[in-house]
Amino acid sequence: MDAAQAGHRLDRVLAGTLGDLSRARIQQLLSEGRVTRDGATIKDANHRVKGGDVFQVFVPPAAEARPRGQDIPLDVVHEDKDLIVIEKPAGLVVHPAAGNPDGTLVNALIAHCGDSLMGIGGEARPGIVHRLDKDTSGLLVAAKTERAMTSLAKQFANHTIERAYNAVVWGAPRAREGVIEGQIGRSPFDRKRMAVLRGGGKLARTRYKVLETFGPEARPLASLIECRLETGRTHQIRVHLTHLGHPLIGDPTYGRARQAPRPKTTEEEVAFAAAANFPRQALHAFVLGFQHPSLHKTMRFESPWPSDFAGLVEALRGLT
Questions:
Q1: pLDDT (tens digit, 9 = 90+) per residue, 8-23?
Q2: What does the pLDDT read at residue 60?
Q3: Where are the alpha helices (DSSP H) in the chain?
Q4: Which candidate, 225, 237, 205, 317, places its Cα nearest to that of 271?
Q5: Of 75, 77, 111, 309, which one's alpha carbon is 20 to 30 angstroms from that of 261?
């Protein structure tokens, strides 16, 4: 860098020097740790340049425009010529996006169903009618024909799909069952989070029922809840339960750990540790029901808890 550039922001200087990269792209590369100076990674776009500084910018090769099939094992619950229902494990991203260009459910579906899936519902998310968050486990349906895609999409839009989730949350709601309602949109304080807003956003409704509480009746440490979606907004259950004051155990975005009392027994120690160290949001999609687009009959599937979720509940039951 020459003396005229000294004192200026790094992202602005790099964008001016590298004319084929926009300032926004430079900022992205910085945040991904792809800019170095003398071998040290620089992530701060506001870093002030000094005369004589030498920076290296590593630009990764462009991602493929179309997702490709990858041999990723699928737990298939049901499959026919129109659709496929799978058990999505926690940790599997549904479709390619920034940060997850491959290794997704879409890549697995293309390999499993063949390239014919690519024409269903668009190239970016072929066959995907709805999604589950990366660390949410449970049932998901994907379309294999345009007819199925149209039918299922209409059912989701009309809120006639049956979807039920089990969640383990910190504490327990005062009302054993109820409806959480509120407009959900991007948080004005953190654009990576969703929030219940006073104005704007989209209407969201979640019905919940407390199935079991863990710990002293007067102040439970945690509870097992069933949630049924009447709408389908991004992070809806996670946002609504946090708004209610009972975030999901293990939720890195909306959750918060509770200070557990000093354990008096081995069972209590195991329970507190299981809750505090649970590595993902404790949310599992255990029921999925819909009208089959060709058979014109109701299809309904139930999913058992995965081992990590079952282990968490079992450990918490040691408190009662």
A1: 899 988 888 887 777 8
A2: 78
A3: 10-17, 23-31, 105-113, 146-157, 236-244, 266-276, 307-316
A4: 317
A5: 309
